[in-house]
Amino acid sequence: MLQRMLSSDAANAAAPTAAAAQQPQQPNAADAPLAAPAAALNPLQPYIPPGLILPKVPGSSSTVRSAEFAAGAYSGAQLPPERWPEVAVVGRSNVGKSSLINCLLGSSSLAKVSKHPGKTQSINHYLVNRNWYLVDCPGYGYAKVSQAKRADWHSMTQQYFMRRGTLVDILLLVDASLPPKEADLAGAEWLLQRNLPLTVVFTKIDKAKQQQAGPAGNILAFRAGLQAAGLAVPAHFATSAAKKLGAQQLLQYLAQRRAHAAQQQQQLLQHSIS
Ligand SMILES: Nc1nc2c(ncn2[C@@H]2O[C@H](COP(=O)(O)OP(=O)(O)OP(=O)(O)O)[C@@H](O)[C@H]2O)c(=O)[nH]1
Ligand SMILES: [Mg+2]
């Protein structure tokens, strides 16, 4: 479904700069407290594929000291300049993107939360610690706005993913209180097929529906869905904005991703000078 929404015209576009951030480092278990052995996978614990385990980078901080709204873009031209590393948050409407952003940033109201899907209609940049952006993207899979507006959202988000040189990671949010949805699996597939950086963040692990698998079962089913489609299973985190679960681990991981991307950029720069 997402493949249709994020139309295929970009499928052959040039490889995005962001793909560089996805390149794995050599595993170093001693330096990677977030890694969980696949054999003993507890779906509610963070999972990082061995090839993506990042060594600790001195000076990478997961503490949020300040956070402010920086820009809301309704078109590519309105995006802020590519100045800081950024982490995008995407997923179906109502999955909890804005709630997770508030939870990560220690705010109750920075990103607007609503029971009604479609609240976030622009690409919103939040500047964290004055040195990185957390970016709230419009939701997908929501029909209560005009078709024209919906198409506009998706094409803008797609272009943003493909062209943003400072994009370090894309957090695809998936509601863990529900069985896997086709749209979410398709969203992960779309990103993976373009070698864009992807981390799946399961939301609402506090919420279980009676007579259903529950968050742990739903997470395992989602992973199995990706495997069945022949896709590599990406890193994942399980969170609850309502109960403030999983935020610290995710912030720690994102600090490592940013520091690693900065190191890579420096290496590329040195390489191009020498
Ligand atoms: N139980 C529970 N509810 C949550 C959690 N996170 C978000 N919600 C609820 O889910 C609804 C949607 O949350 P939002 O954060 O606005 O979702 P969104 O993905 O930003 O939605 P759009 O902007 O419409 O795309 C709200 O009613 C939230 O209170 C969670 O961790 N647990
Ligand atoms: Mg929102």
What does this structure look like?
- It contains 6 helices and 7 strands.
- The chain is α/β, with parallel strands linked by helices and 274 residues long.
- The chain has a single domain (2-273), classed as 3-Layer(aba) Sandwich (Rossmann fold), CATH 3.40.50.300.
- The protein has a 7-stranded mixed sheet, sandwiched between helices.
- Strand 5, helix 4 (182-193) and strand 6 (198-203) form a beta-alpha-beta unit.
- It binds guanosine-5'-triphosphate and magnesium ion.
Please specify the SSE layout and strand pairing.
Elements (H helix, E strand, L loop, with lengths): L1 H4 L61 E7 L12 E6 L5 H9 L17 E6 L3 E5 L10 H17 L3 E9 L6 H12 L4 E6 L10 H15 L6 E4 L8 H27 L1
Parallel strand pairs: 2-4, 2-5, 5-6, 6-7
Antiparallel strand pairs: 1-3, 3-4
The structure holds guanosine-5'-triphosphate and magnesium ion (MG).
